[in-house]
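MODEL INPUT / OUTPUT PAIR
PAIR INDEX: 1
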Amino acid sequence: MSSTDYQGLLQKAVRAGDIEETVDIIQKVLQEGINPVAIVDEGLIPAIRTMGDLFEQGEVFLPHLMRAAEALKKGMALVSPLIEETTADQGVANTVIMGTVEGDIHDIGKSIVALLLSASGFNVVDLGASVPVNKFIGAVEDRTGDSIIVGMSALLTTTMSQQKLVIQKLTEKGLREKVKVMVGGACVSREWAAEIGADGYGLNAQEAVRLALEFA
């Protein structure tokens, strides 16, 4: 099975919520030596992102999205231990405070990034979805002795301004210099990250991990 073949087939299986097919494809490509991080980044994430977009557009409904999410979880259960094995020796000890910003309940992509960060040796504090500005600030204040990265996800254009508000509040509280801020999400761009004063932008889960490792 070629790289291109597996990507398309895996994405199709996840979108269809076909757990058996999702597991079968992943098992086969793992045997062929495909990098487990690539499986997540090139197969699982694009599939669930597409489903999220279709859901927002009203082209699929909640049961379809939930079935796709279940297939995603089964796939992640296969690759997560392998990712942990390959990254366990990096010895990173930084704390990453992760959350989807207030007003945005999408948290599958953010959760995948959190998983990969944890597997890479980071101490991940996952605040969940629709996280208020003050909750981000409180999480930073609670970890005064740590080296901290704040990661914020936004999938809606109506909520991305919350990323800017968190950075502004960090500055007001005198906390901005002690943290690195990275942002991501379907509606977020490198230009937006620069505009709001973030330290970096992750286009996908793999890039977010790479960025965090640079900050460490």
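PAIR INDEX: 2
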Amino acid sequence: MGDAGDVSKEYAAGFAAGIATVVTGHPFDTVKVKLQAHNTKGKKVYNNAFQCTVRILSNEGVKGLYRGASSSFIGLAFESSLIFGIYSQMTHALQGKTERNLPQLEIIVPSAGFGGAIISFILCPSELIKCRMQVQGCGSAISKYTHYSGPLACALQTIKNEGAYTAVALQLLRESIGNAVFFSTYEFSRYYMRPHFNPDSSGLTNRQKLLMDVGSGIFSGGLAGMAFWSAVLPLDVAKTVIQTAPDRNASRNPLRTIHTIYTRVGLGGCYAGLGPTLLRAFPANAAAIVTWELTAKALGLKRAQFAEVCVDTVLFS
């Protein structure tokens, strides 16, 4: 297969990773968004993530945890396709034909940061709709939020009234910084973790090798996801507050928003939703990385040499 075919396969593998992320992580994300939108106003609506989850299930059922998931499927699938595709292509281009066994930050950071900046312009509209759908629900505590009949109605009304790029600057910062942290953590943890999972593969069957690779993918992907959100959560909190503000005249200045949250509820407010975010980050990103690696391998892709730590065995014996 030529270069064009390999490029399309890179994006296809990323697309599959995005779908896995939404299926695994959206319920956690819904809880995170509700905590960020409602617990940063001075008076807590929810005592903790568990109470928030119970209330959603009691009032809306399981479908409440997947509110806004349709826009997430669209946004995250294409976002994931782009970030993994751009990252893979840029690491190949920056490395060239030089073989390096150790991951190189001068290759990883610009590749991931550039990819994150690009996807922010695609991700912002879908996250805007997702967040506004997620803060809806039953109960007087959230009646001040506009109720939309569905994602399409939300999108049309939002675009008509204020456009689709509310808080895009925060989205760009979150994605460029976060993805640089994510891929750096992934590459280094994968590199150093692999020998512990598979120190001597000579006596293993292909299926056993596959399980070893999946295991290291789960841990490296999960750790990378937690590193991403630990680094950028205050930016994400400010983005959620701005995107879900009932008053369209409310300030959209990110620094002022973060300062206001800190003044109202302290440092904890800047990390509202940390619990469900980290609980979501590990399984969702583990699923994304494993899906990405296995799909790429099934499509016959070979990654840059310093990252040649993913599945290198036949998928099935």
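PAIR 2 NOTE: Confidence is low (pLDDT under 50) at residues 138-143, 305-317.
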